[in-house]
Amino acid sequence: MNLTHRPRRLRRTASVRKLVRETKLTAADLIYPLFVVHGIEIKEEISSLPGNYHLSLDLLLEEIADLVKLGIGGIILFGIPQIKDQLGSGAWDQEEIVQQACRQIKEEYPDLLVITDVCLCQYTSHGHCGAIKNGYVQNDITLENLAKTALSHAKAGADMVAPSDMMDGRVKAIRERLDQEGYQDTAIMAYSAKYSSAFYGPFREAAHSAPQEGDRSSYQMDPANSDEALREIKLDLEEGADIVMVKPALPYLDIIRRAKDQFNTPLAAYNVSGEYAMIKAAAQKGWLDEEKTALESLTSIKRAGAEIIITYWAKDIAKKLAKDN
Predict the structure, then answer these.
(1) What residues are paired with 75 via a beta bridge?
(2) What do the Gene Ontology cellular component annotations say (predicted)?
(3) Which residues define the annotated binding site for Zn(2+)?
């Protein structure tokens, strides 16, 4: 048998496979979500997100020291407030925990990329992402509160704000407010194609943000829709988004690919809590190799077109990549 083409030649050894690898994942591609709470010396594991914790600010700073050494691309902060109300007014309180965290992190680690999640669900007593009137989340009233929240984060030192609420026009409202107040250099990473997904369950425990009544399907996207995602991304880019995001990641690799092909703009994907938790659970049962499965999952997200991956595996995968290199 005379075979001219033998693709297996380039798979024969680990060094050859590495040489011709098309998709290369690095620690700098990864953003690590962190949950910060009030108090001192608090480190409580989130039961549905094993290996992730509610951290008080003192221990958060210790965690960040490790992340900096690993070369992780940055962090995204979620705050757990002490008090909630109907409007979620704690979200823009300059003395709330996210704002405190931003100030201290930037003081100790000025070069670390700090992204803040901009939403109201953690801060509202009803758990929805905006103001409620007659049982319905009000879009335009909510925009002002989101803009105030983003501004408070920028004032505290956040490099980038990430609105995750899915209200119409929120990127424009935030961009205009930031620019008016002199924060033209604060970037916006918009959760542009955020689906009403069943994969968010563990996060809602972590952020204490589950809706008290109903669900979020009136403002988050229908999982059946694809073209709608492109319309949402286009609107956010037109309104001033610097980076757009698809969330979740693994069930929506087709959306990531379509978004990259159509817009060729900086693109993030959120490897969400449910994606993390189901692999963790399978690994605990001995059904999957956690490290290999996690690495394969994140590589597939990058291969689909996302340059930036928000993932609860950021720290573990960064350690593996450092060891392999």
Answers:
(1) 32, 114
(2) cytosol
(3) 119, 121, 129
Asked if 33 and 76 touch (Cβ cutoff 8 Å), the reply is yes
| 247 belongs to the catalytic site | yes
DSSP secondary structure letters along 6-38: -GGGGGSSHHHHHHT-S----GGGEEEEEEEES
Cα–Cα distance list, 8 to 17, 19, 134 (Å): 10, 14, 64
Q: Is 302 known to be catalytic? A: no
Known binding-site residue numbers: 119, 121, 129, 204, 216, 232, 273, 312
Residue numbering of the annotated binding site for 5-aminolevulinate? 204, 216, 273, 312
Residues 25-324, CATH architecture: Alpha-Beta Barrel (3.20)
The model carries a pTM of 0.94
Summarize pLDDT for 42-85 with one digit per residue, the tens.
Answer: 999 998 899 999 999 999 999 999 999 999 999 999 999 888 88
Of the candidates 84, 148, 155, 194, the residue annotated as catalytic is 194
Catalytic residue (one of 148, 155, 247, 280): 247
